């Protein structure tokens, strides 16, 4: 549920901000967009791509990974990016 997801992401951000190294796995690009930092993405060929979240998580790469058309949007009200996938 959204409440627990947000609480968990906030805790991870706080720990990282205190200097802790955090390794997190997720299938939700929104989690990664909320946490930021460095990210590793396992592409369909089994190759690990690594770099800054904002550079690695592009619409093109995410669409390829999830095999669905999607868009990234910045939500000013919450000052963060989010990912929305098409239903068709």
Number of helices: 4
Our Rg estimate from Cα atoms comes to 13 Å
Terminal CA distance reads 24 Å
Unreliable stretches (pLDDT < 50, length at least 5) are none
Helix-strand category = alpha+beta
What's the overall geometry?
Answer: globular
Report strand order across the widest sheet: 1-2
Number of strands: 4
Helix content: 25-40%
User: Major beta sheet, specifics?
Assistant: 2 strands, antiparallel
| H and E order | HHEEHHEE
Strand content: 25-35%
Taking all residues together, what is the mean pLDDT? 93
Describe the secondary structure blueprint for this structure.
Elements: H1 2-17, H2 29-35, E1 38-42, E2 48-52, H3 53-56, H4 59-66, E3 70-75, E4 80-85
Antiparallel strand pairs: 1-2, 3-4
Could you explain how this protein is built, in words?
The structure is a single chain. With 88 residues, the protein is α+β, with helices and mostly antiparallel strands. Helix content is 40%, strand content 25%. It has four helices and four strands. It has helices at residues 2-17, 29-35, 53-56, 59-66, and strands at 38-42, 48-52, 70-75, 80-85. The protein has a two-stranded antiparallel ribbon. Strand 1 (38-42) and strand 2 form a beta hairpin. The longest helix has 16 residues, at 2-17. The protein is globular. The two termini are 24 Å apart. The relative contact order is 0.13. The model has no long low-confidence stretch (mean pLDDT 93).
